[in-house]
Amino acid sequence: MPESPLSASPYELLGVPVDADDAALRVAYRRALRESHPDTGGDAARFHAVQVAWTLVGTPEARARFDRGAGTSAPTRESWAPAAPRPRRDSRPQARSHGHPGGYDRERYLALIREWVGRGQELADPYDPALVRAAPRDIRHVLADALAEEATARSLATLGIAYTIWHDVATDAAGPGLPPKLDHLVLGPTGLFAVQSEDWGGEVRFRRNELIGEGLDGERPFRALAARAKAVTRPAKVKPTALLVVVPDEHAAEPLELGGSIRGAATALVRRSRLVSAIREGIPGSPSLGGTDVMEVRSRLQAVIRFA
């Protein structure tokens, strides 16, 4: 997956504004090295990140390349703009897929970024890396979620013809304060999975059957996911067998971490690279579905699902 819009920029890692002069940048780099060095009680990961930041902006030439979005590891417009359709090279049957993954959040991001720039102001490129980096975190989070949903959809498509996937399913009846859609609903012989694709910009983990992490800001992802799943499945008179929150690999300590259950559905935090195998194998503690049951559940869902 491309670098997340929530990832810290080299300037943020060094603790300087983007318009800092070269002398201030050099002082900040030396200070960050001292503070993060493992030999003086610092964090090895941050120490490495500071060194990488310096390679990106430590010289006028490298800094100019990064600011243009052309430096190594620097985001480019193509990293975040909608990808152009590409012809399939794999002839194997893919999962049946309905809806537009990430479409709702793409539209929401465009509305928010235009409003933030200012009504009446010309916005030449809403995915310009410098613009995205300067935007408030809540706007960058919307774009990060869209990218996460698109990446998950690409993975889910490889499940095979035994599975059906619905993306961006409307959940207007889920309740106040909840997003009006379910990211993905996956049906197959191993169960009915309600899936949320997320990028909070950092590591998350389970505590008491809910996720915690610095980027969550009081959110209760599994409770919210359960409510949205219920809004979709209850009219169809079916129940999800598992609730999955999918995050970038580096944001989960384990490939698959099990929680408890909510309303009879098993909960799990899953690295994106583990998602397809987790669904094919089934989540421990969640029931599988027989072939006849899958067809019946699919028919019921098709009759009630609407898209956001």
What does this protein structure show overall?
It is a single chain. With 308 residues, the chain is of the alpha/beta class. It folds into two domains: 10-76, Helix Hairpins; 92-99 and 154-304, no CATH class. It is 39% helix and 17% strand. It has eleven helices and nine strands. It has helices spanning 10-14, 22-36, 44-57, 60-67, 77-80, 103-117, 129-134, 137-156, 221-233, 275-281, 291-304; strands spanning 96-98, 164-170, 181-188, 191-197, 205-207, 210-212, 242-247, 256-262, 265-271. The strands form two sheets. A seven-stranded mixed β-sheet has the order 1-2-3-4-7-9-8, with helices on both faces. Strand 5 (205-207) and strand 6 form a beta hairpin. The chain is globular. 39% of the residues are buried.
